[in-house]
Amino acid sequence: MPGLTERLLYRVAKRWIAGYSLEDAIRVAHDSNDRQLRVILNRLGEHTPDQKLIQGYTEEYLKLLDRMQTEKINGTISLKPSQIGLAASPALYEGNLLRIIERAETYDEFVWIDMENSPYTTATLKAYREILPSHRQLGVCLQANMKRTETDLKDLISGGGIIRLVKGAYPESAELAYKKRSEVDANYLKLMTLLFEGGGRFAIGTHDARLIDKARNLAKDRKRDFEFQLLKGIRDDIKPALIEEGYRVSEYIPYGPEWYNYSKRRMRERKRNILLLLRSITG
Fold it and tell me: By the 8 A CB rule, do 166 and 273 touch?
């Protein structure tokens, strides 16, 4: 039986997660589609070396792709490398990732790869570069708080990579990451400008109104294949306006029993998300 703290947190967390099950995810995805939002569904879970869990997560994504096709959901999936094998071995991860990509390709669907904390960055990008030439419907997330990201972004752009740019939610050392919000924001703007100047297809993943406005301004002069991506339940005030202006907007919708640790991390690492969430609830 969940404790009181967990039950109370679940009431709050329901704003940004679909619920416990795949059925919850499909139901919420339909609701988002009804509001003209594309969806990006993510089965929660990460950092597992357990072979049984890894295969279970992989099978869940295959099932999720099948259901999205059957239910005619407008959207795709996003997965975490350490969830489907990278915490055990790169070879296991790549094998499972290819299974998922190949299933998605039978439906002409896209797959996003989330970026995790720094121990996984190099291996995640190495696998992405190796797989991309043969599987073009594949994108990867980069984090603006990381000092290495400008180099990674330029390298991926030159190779035709498809990038989702986010600020970054994992705690990292000052050696590896910018710690001040002003530094992260400045780097995000710099990287976003690089995408608008030279990127192919990309996604702007931020809830920051100032950066969203900067993206709007950059888009006026540059016709680029990009979309805005925002979390379920956060900045619901701005999503309809972006759609009305003609932008593609996707809602990132996580689900699964692992919602508790995910939600605690969201609140611990990005307190600003709580302010945005409260604004969505009370606005």
Answer: no
Is 270 one of the annotated active-site residues of the chain?
A: no
- Which contiguous run of DSSP H or E holds residue 9? helix 4-13
Site of tokens 């702007």: 204
Name residue, tokens 């609701």: 31
pTM of the model: 0.91
Give the pLDDT confidence score for residue 68 in this predicted structure: 98
For residue 127, the SS3 value is helix
Instruction: Please choose, from the candidates 21, 60, 8, the residue with its C-alpha nearest in 3D space to the C-alpha of residue 258.
Output: 21
H/E stretch holding 240? helix 239-244
Name 94's bridge partners: none
CB 273, CB 234: distance < 8 Å: yes
% of the chain surpassing 90 pLDDT: 80
Q: DSSP readout, 21-73?
A: SHHHHHHHHHHHHHTT-EEEEEE-------HHHHHHHHHHHHHHHHHHHHTT-
DSSP 74: S
Q: Of the listed 43, 103, 164, 235, which one is catalytic? A: 164
Distances (CA, A) of 242 to 98, 235, 247, 250, 255: 34, 11, 6, 11, 25
Query: Would you say residue 202 has pLDDT above 70?
Result: yes
List b or e across 47-58, with b for residues whose CB sees 16 or more CB atoms inside 10 angstroms: ebeeeeebeebb
Task: Let me know if 194 is exposed, middle or buried by CB neighbors in 10 A (0-12, 13-18, 19+).
Answer: middle
Q: What is the rounded average pLDDT of the residues 133-143?
A: 97
The residue extents of the domains of the chain are 4-282
Assess whether 34 carries a catalytic annotation: no
Q: Among residues 114, 152, 185, 236, which one is catalytic? A: 114
**What CATH number was assigned to the domain covering residues 4-282?**
3.20.20.220
Taking CA atoms, 7 is separated from 11, 14, 99, 259, 264, in Å, by: 7, 11, 36, 12, 13
Matching residue, tokens 């190949």? 102
